[in-house]
């Protein structure tokens, strides 16, 4: 029986997350979600089960409202890094979910690294 695209995406997401959890226990997780219209990122403490910092293309103050392109992803990455610095967070691990590490996801990660996050 053939797997649907969604099933393959979920399998890939869980595979990535489980590998990261084994090697990065105790660190915060920078989780990225990309939809057809928006992109968002959040720093999550899995021990507490809480989101500490978040940024999204839905926010009006970032100037990328409703955009889902590489430039918008870079602005979101810079915003998440800036907010993490304000919260005293310097280190995390990057959870790309089931998305491939290129294009928008890579632009977000590179901008977050340039902003001072280490992963």
From TrEMBL:
SUPFAM superfamilies per record: Translational machinery components (SSF53137)
Gene3D superfamilies in UniProt: 3.30.420.100
Any matching Pfam family: Ribosomal_L18p
InterPro entries: Ribosomal_L18, Ribosomal_uL18_bac-type, Ribosomal_uL18_bac/plant/anim
Keyword match Metal-binding: no
Top-rank taxon: Bacteria
Claim: DNA damage is one of the keywords in the record: no
Keywords, comma-separated and alphabetical: Ribonucleoprotein, Ribosomal protein, RNA-binding, rRNA-binding
Coiled-coil region: none
Any one GO CC term of the record: ribosome
Subunit and interaction comment: Part of the 50S ribosomal subunit; part of the 5S rRNA/L5/L18/L25 subcomplex. Contacts the 5S and 23S rRNAs.
Its job: This is one of the proteins that bind and probably mediate the attachment of the 5S RNA into the large ribosomal subunit, where it forms part of the central protuberance.
Family stated for the protein in its record: Belongs to the universal ribosomal protein uL18 family.
Record's protein name: Large ribosomal subunit protein uL18
Natural source organism: Celeribacter arenosi
Name of the gene encoding the protein in the UniProt record: rplR
